[in-house]
Amino acid sequence: MTLGFVRPARLDDVVEIARIQLTTWRVAYRRLLPKHVLDRLDEDWITRRWREAIAEPPSPAHRVLVAVEQVDSPGSQPESAYVVGFAASGPADDTALAPDEDHTALDKAFASAAAVTDVLVEPRWGRRGHGSRLLAASVDLWRSDGFTTALAWTFTDDNVTRRFLESSGWAPDGAGRSLDVDDLLVPQIRWHVSLEQAPVTAA
């Protein structure tokens, strides 16, 4: 029997989280970002970043969650559990804003907004509901923290993530920006969802 669930990330998850990020980016973004940029991603730096995020989050509302797939083995063999994806979020800060927005008004405009920084599931574990569970668990925590809105940026041409967010009740809010990736401008759009509506779950 296979069981999928979400739990808070632990320090012993950091190596797997970094591996999943690298693997997923190199598969999902291979047509969006230059190959040499993806090839040069520093796994050690990424691992340190996740260790800091888990061990010393900036606030209690900054969280890293992992999706786990647990498989019960037949007979007397112990069950196997695999970290297959992760989500990270926290209170909205300057990185949630578009360049043309008033950054001095952040506290007023997005004081009650949560911002997603990552929701990734390793491609080989896709289509098993892990992304939906990560998002649903995040929504429950955002609501318990008193957030009323959530924001997320995606690459404009990342159709997989766009369809996932749309099926979960999110919509573009009209904001856009471009990331300078080694002199290549990669456009992004911002999504938002109200947390005061019905439960937000993926289809």
UniProtKB/TrEMBL annotation:
Record InterPro entries: Acyl_CoA_acyltransferase, Bact_Acetyltransf, GNAT_dom
EC assignment: 2.3.-.-
EC supergroup of this enzyme: transferase
Ranges annotated as spanning the membrane: none
GO molecular function, one term: acyltransferase activity
Record keywords, A-Z: Acyltransferase, Transferase
One Pfam family this sequence matches: Acetyltransf_1
Residue ranges occupied by any N-acetyltransferase domain in the UniProt entry: 4-196
PROSITE patterns (alphabetical): GNAT
Record carries keyword Transmembrane: no
Keyword Acyltransferase: yes
Protein name per its UniProtKB record: GNAT family N-acetyltransferase
Taxonomic source organism: Dactylosporangium vinaceum
